[in-house]
Amino acid sequence: MNDPTLIGPCADYEHELVELHDGELPPEHARIVRLHVAQCARCRAWAEQFAALDATLAAELPQPALSPAFDARLRERLSALGVPAARGELRSRIELEHDSLIESLRKVTWRRGLLGAVGSAAATLGVLAAAKGLLARSTDWTSLLGDGPERWVAMGTLGATIAVAALAWSAMRRGVLGLGWPR
Amino acid sequence: MDAGIEDHLAAGRHARAFDLVVPAYKDRVFRLAYSILKERAAAEDATQETLVRVWKALPGFDGRAQLGTWIYAITRNTCLMELRRRRPMVSFDDPDSTEAQHAAASIASGPAADPERDNLLRLVDALPRNQQEAVRLFYLEDRSYEAVAEQLGMPLGTVKNLLHRARKRLMELARPDEVIAA
Predict the structure, then answer these.
(1) Does A1 touch chain B (CB under 8 A)?
(2) Which residues in chain A are closer than 8 Å to B47, comparing Cβ atoms?
(3) How far apart are CA B50 and CA A127, in angstroms?
(4) pTM for this structure?
(5) Residues of chain B positioned with their CB less than 8 A from the CB of A8
(6) Mapped to the 3 state alphabet, what secondary structure does A88-131 carry?
(7) Nearest Cβ partner of B171 from A49, A67, A81?
(8) In this predicted structure, what is the pLDDT of residue A147?
(9) Of B30, B60, B181, which has the smallest distance from its Cβ to A7's Cβ?
(10) pLDDT one-digit tens code per residue, A82-116
(11) DSSP assigned state of A148
C-alpha cells in the first residue's frame, strides 16, 4: 500500500505544506515554502494530492443540523424540571445545617461537662468526709480492717468496690455500648 | 460573547444566563456530539441532554474554567456515556486491531450506493476514533484548528498532529496506486 510520506530532503516540508494549505503559515515562511514547491515536483504532487483530499472531505462529509423542533423540545424538558437551586441558596442551606450541628454538639458538651463537674465535686466531698471520719475515730485506721485473713478479705472488698465505682463512673461519662446510652 | 452570560451568572440570574447559553452553544455542542456519535438523531439527543445538565449545574458554575470548556466537557461526558451504553461497540483506536482490519477490508470490497462518497465515509470510519472525531469536527467547524482544540479539550499542537496523521492516512487509503517518493 502507498505511503504518502515525503522522504529525503523534502521530508521537512510535509507539515509546512499542510500549514500552507490551511493558511496557518506566517507570510515570510509561506513565501519560502511556495518557492520550494515551485521548484520541486514531488512536493507539488504531494500538495496537490493533499488539496484534493481536503476539498473532497469538505464537500462530502455530512454537515448535519439540529431539527427545527429542538428548541421547543428543550423548553418542554426544562419546564418539567423547574428552576434549579441557586448556588447562594445551596450554600446558605448547607451553612444552616452546619450551624445547627455545631450548636447541638455544644449543648451536649456543656451538659456533660456540668454533670462531670457535679459528680467530681460530690465524689471529692465524700472521700474527704470519709477520711475525716476515719481520722476522728482512730489514729491507727488499719485496725479497722481487722487482723490476719480478715484484713485481706476487707482489703479485697474495698478494692473491688473502688473498681466497680470507677467502672460505673466511666460508663456514666462515656456511655456503655449495648445499653443504648449516648456516646 | 460569553461576557454577557458571565455577567448574568455573577449576578445570580441563571435563567437569563441560560437563555444566552442555548443560542450561543447549541450548534457547537451538536457538532461536537455528532463528531463523536456519528449519528444525527443521537447527536441531537446528546445535545438536549447536555443542555439539561448545563441548566441543572449552571448555578454551581464557579467560573474557574472557561464557560465553553466546561460545556464541551459536559458534552464529551454525555457522549461517552452514550457510547458506553451501546453494546457491542467496535473500537478503531488501534489501527492494527482485528476490527480495523475488517473495516479496511470492507472498504475495499463493500457495495456502495454513491460509491465515491460512501467510500470516503468508510475511509474516515476506519481511522482511529480520536482521528475520526478530529476530522469530522475540523470540517464541521469550517477548518478551524482552534475550535477543534477547544471542543475536544486538547492542546492546539496535538490537534494539528492528529489531523495531519489522519489526513495522511486517508491519502494512503484513497490513492493506493500512486506513490510519492524521493
Answers:
(1) yes
(2) 66, 70
(3) 74
(4) 0.63
(5) 182
(6) HHHHHHHHHHHHHHHHHHHHHHHHHHHHHHHHHHHHHHHHHHHH
(7) A49
(8) 73
(9) B181
(10) 766 555 555 555 667 777 777 878 888 888 888 88
(11) T
Please answer yes or no on whether B55 and A22 come within 8 Å at the CB atom.
no
- For residue B125, the chain A residue with the least C-alpha distance is A61
Q: Closest chain A residue to B22 measured between Cα atoms?
A: A71
Please name which of B90, B76, B62 lies closest in space to residue B32, comparing C-alpha atoms: B76
Q: B145: Cβ–Cβ under 8 A, 6 or more apart, which residues?
A: A22, A24, B138, B156, B159, B160, B163
Cα(A66)–Cα(B49) distance, rounded to whole angstroms? 14
Contact indicator for B103, B126 with CB cutoff of 8 Å: yes
Minimum Cα–Cα distance from A55: chain B residue: B139
Distance CA A7, CA A46 (A): 11
Place of cell 477520711: A131
Q: Which amino acid is at B87?
A: R
Give residue-wise pLDDT tens across range A32-46.
Answer: 999 999 999 989 999
d(CA B72, CA B152): 7
B140 shares contact with chain A (CB less than 8 Å):
yes
Contact B129, B140 (CB under 8 A): no
Which has the closest alpha carbon to B101: B175, B176, B173? B173
Query: Is B128 in contact with B93 (CB distance < 8 Å)?
Result: yes
| A41-60 vs B156-174: helix crossing angle, rounded to 10 | 100
The answer to whether the CB atoms of A66 and B44 lie below 8 A apart is yes
Contact between B150 and B68 (Cβ < 8 Å): yes
Q: What is the ipTM of this complex?
A: 0.77
Chain A CB contacts of B52 under 8 Å are: 74, 77-78, 81
E strands within B5-156? none
